[in-house]
Amino acid sequence: MQVPANGRGRAIKSLDERSQRSHNPPMKTRYSTTLEGSAQDVSVEALGEERYRVIIGDDVLDLTAHEVGPRQYHVLHDGFVRDVVVTGKAPAYEVHDRAGSFAVELLDEEQLVRQALRGGPGGLNEDGLTVMAPMPGKVVKALVEVGQEVVEGQGVVVIEAMKMENELRAAAEGVVQKILVDPGQSVDAGQVLVVIE
After folding, report:
1. What is the pLDDT of residue 38?
2. Is this structure's pTM higher than 0.85?
């Protein structure tokens, strides 16, 4: 999915706002973000004072972000300056500039693991309730079979990510309709692993 140019700038600023909380921002941080309803992997690397390299999908953005007030920023990218205001609190932000507003949800790797262990991420689609990979990883094993009844919070698949095995759980009760992955298969963030109806 291509993020609109104005959406990229806004997503970048919310990333910068989040990194400003710490006195020593991380040199490189990976996030999963939801942009326009689609999961995206985002990598933010601090290059120096107020300079960042942000990778969203295949797009690499080198930018300068200068805080000019509480939650207000000037963002310089490709010779263009955007004045940006960030509202909301982790993990859901609203980013505003002259072009409008843009909602972005940011989850770092630790938050993604916690969310998966609680029974998310997932969602409803035309096939039913889905269990999705919270981050890139490798499938270790499926804990259920097609046709099996599951209850809310029951483990359905195990993936290895960040050198840890993570049991992903059903967010609701139902019957397993599809298992879309095999042990040893690499998966991307947001990839549907299991469908429950």
Report:
1. 67
2. no
Quote the Cα angle for 109-158-161, to 5°.
30
3-state secondary structure 37-90: CEEEEEEEEEEECCEEEEEECCEEEEEEEEEEECCEEEEEECCEEEEEEEEEEC
What per-residue confidence (pLDDT) applies to 114?
Answer: 60
Q: Which domains does the chain have, with CATH numbers?
A: 5-109 (3.30.700.30), 119-196 (2.40.50.100)
CB atoms within 10 A of CB 151: 10
| pLDDT averaged per 10 residues, the chain (length 197) | 46 50 54 68 84 86 91 90 87 83 73 57 52 86 94 89 82 89 90 87
88-105: b (≥16 Cβ within 10 Å) or e? eeebebebbbeeeebbbb
Is residue 49 exposed (0-12), middle (13-18) or buried (19+ Cβ within 10 Å)? exposed
pLDDT confidence of residue 184: 95
